[in-house]
Known about the structure:
This protein is α/β, with parallel strands linked by helices.
Amino acid sequence: MASGKKARRVSNSPENPVEYGFQEVKPLNYIQHEYLRAIHENQIIFGIGSAGTGKTYIAALYAASELFHRRIQKIILTRPNIETGRGLGFLPGTLEEKYAPYLEPFDNIFSKSLGKGFYEYALKNKNIEPKPLGFMRGTTFDNCVVLLDEAQNATREEMKMILSRIGKNCKMIISGDTDQCDITNSGLSDAVSRLGSIQGIDIVRFVDEDIVRSKLCKDIILAYRK
């Protein structure tokens, strides 16, 4: 998805202070460069478009870098509680355990970029906090990066609710693909149509030609466009 140079620092875990490398994000193409620029320059960023373009990867790696360099206190991970096709039914365990399958893409990125030990410590200490979208009401987001993934499946009410939580030193990165929407009225499409002209908000659109996951991934998506 992206490549880059490594920074090094001693882990801030008091139990196991080990040195590890951090892979700084480096865009692979023009649109990824524009996406990263938009993230640096704005508080709310929408990344919209095809699967496999690196939207989630770049957003998650940027957030990991901010936490690594202690420019924020927390990363909040969330996504709508909507499954593609038939659901898995009842899942046992705590709320965090039930929600874990929806956050696997973030889990892989953070484990690789931060190191497994630091990532597990950050989860335990709630410096990285997975949180269901429906549990955000009444919260204020300060000193954090909020990553909302699969946002095309958020309702208008959910989108309005989470966007209005933004506080001081908070950056919100919202990614989604409107062509993969599983609900009737997407809050992502509604938000983009309303908020594009507001200062501090930017919208970056990815197209099929920007797919970098693999050639086969690109060919499959193009085949389904016909």
